[in-house]
Amino acid sequence: MKSFLVSILLIQSTFAQADIVLHDDTRTEIRLAGPAKRIISLAPNITEMVYAAGAGEHLVGAVDFSDYPVAAHKLPRVGSYARVDIEAIVALKPDLVLAWESGTPPASVAQLRKLKIPVFVVEPKRIADVARDIERYGQLAGTDAIAKTSAADFRERHERLKNRYAGKPPVRMFYQVWDEPLMTVNGKQVISDVIRLCGGKNVYAELPAIAPTVSVESVLAENPDVIVAGGMGASSAAWLDQWRRWPRLNATAKNQLFFIDPNLLQRHTPRLLDGAEQLCARLEQARNKP
């Protein structure tokens, strides 16, 4: 009986020490000897996602603008998402760094990997990727139970929104990411997936670049029924004033110029569905206007 119990303990120990092996969104294999206990996030959206996965206590550093939830304000800073401080990262002795392919400089990822620091790179493109990534962070940090519950809640809410807005008449819209230069998103960016969820039609969905620069003349030619401003904060709402200079523009003529907090639509986190609810309500308002 004693030898049997020893065998069981050895098996449990083996499983406890088993490697964690995942492929990131660049198809790079990431192998950890066990759950990550010292994690650094290189994007504000990733920081928020790690908390959603129940692994916030394992974060030891994050980039600027990692401001949600409140606990993230206390994390040591390691630069910005576009300018990473390698020395600060090394000093924090992480066993895992989480990076954003569209934001983190590739050279920084390469340098960290050269220093033998595991870097897991993500590039969410669809709403469903939020739930997927929560689960992956849970696997990497050993918080699977919390992460799976969080992901399940997200999927359930997403499904409710899909059912509510399925089959709605399409509304042509322009999403403004930035003002100078004037920027938007194409059909492969997650914001476009939110637009589709709400029954909207992104007038720039077919452009090849993820975040293309467009002209005012081009927007006027597309003549969208709705314009939504994003940007970096509430001050971006002022961008909508420029469109009021064009009274023949459908969105202006119908007074369908809206601002939605970019932290809700431009961060790939559970709050994306908060932004989706607001956008869906705005498009429904546009549908019902004579």
Average pLDDT for all residues: 91
Largest sheet: 4 strands, parallel
Structural class: alpha/beta
Helix content: 40-55%
Q: Which series of helices and strands comes N to C? A: HEEEHEHEHEHHEHEHEHHEHH
CATH C-level label of the largest domain: Alpha Beta
What is the annotated CATH architecture of the largest domain? Answer: 3-Layer(aba) Sandwich
Distance between the termini: 80 Å
Under CATH, the topology of the largest domain can be stated as Rossmann fold
Overall geometric form: globular
Written description of the protein model:
By secondary structure, the protein is of the alpha/beta class. The protein folds into two domains: 137 residues, Rossmann fold, CATH 3.40.50.1980; 122 residues, Nitrogenase molybdenum iron protein domain (Rossmann fold), CATH 3.40.50. It is 41% helix and 14% strand. The protein is built from twelve helices and ten strands. It has a four-stranded parallel sheet with strand order 4-3-5-6, sandwiched between helices. It has a four-stranded parallel sheet with strand order 8-7-9-10. The longest helix is centred in the middle third of the chain and has 22 residues. It is globular. The protein starts with a helix and ends with a helix. 39% of the residues are buried. About 4% of the residues have low confidence.
